[in-house]
Amino acid sequence: MIFRGLLVASSVAISLVYADGTGVPPRDSGSQYQAHGETNSAIIAASIVPPKQAAKLLTSDVTKRYIVMEVAVYPKSGHEIEIQSLDFALKRASGGTSRPANPEEVASVWGQARPELGRRPPTQGAPYEVFGLSKYNSGPDPRALETKLQRLALPKGRTNRAVAGYVYFPVPVGGTNKVAGLEYSAPRVGAVNLIFGH
Questions:
Q1: Which domains does the chain possess?
Q2: pLDDT for residue 176
Q3: Tens of pLDDT along 123-169?
Q4: CA 3, CA 65: separation in Å to the nearest integer?
Q5: pLDDT < 50 stretches in the chain
Q6: What's the pLDDT score for residue 139?
Q7: What is the DSSP string of the chain?
């Protein structure tokens, strides 16, 4: 019974990063992405999600304000690493870097996704003001959008298995959505600089 309990506990620990059911299936190898690199602990890979594909999955409203990246992490044999989206930084072709936004932050542009923040629903066909933006209630529903963003997002937590998911980088006002590269840096894992072609 003790041995069986240890097996169950080990299985839960290994699968912990999948507990919330988020992410997308990782590809067979990092070389199947647009760019990849490695440290002593893991292989890091990424591809830009084409705007049309991202719009189909998330609505075009998101792709106008965010660059969606599909990121994969492949821990090497014998290594367990901690995954956090904030370990990534997008390098823009115009210069500068962007840190990712979490699903709640992305969805909040179209209204407060959390009811405790006091979002006032608009009347049918009437505009409402959200962070200075005039929108109509025909736009994306923030609750449904946040749920979808979270489901597709790069899982966070410790894992010794390959994981993949979307990371959402804001496009600065007046900025370009052209990507030069993606930087990754995490304690005890190392750093990788992925370069994308123009």
A1: 2-102+153-195 (2.60.40)
A2: 66
A3: 444 343 333 344 444 567 888 899 999 999 999 999 999 999 999 99
A4: 51
A5: 1-20, 112-137
A6: 63
A7: -HHHHHHHHHHHHHTGGGTT--SBPPPSSGGGSSEEEE-SSEEEEEEEPPHHHHHHHH-HHHHHHEEEEEEEEEEPTT--EEE-GGGEEEEETTS-EEPPBPHHHHHGGGS-SSGGG---PPPTT-EEEETTEEEETTS--HHHHHHHHHHHBPP-EEESS-EEEEEEEEPPTT----EEEEEEEETTTEEEEEE---
Sign of the CA dihedral running 145, 150, 152, 154: positive
One-letter amino acid for residue 117 of the chain:
L
Q: pLDDT value at position 142?
A: 85
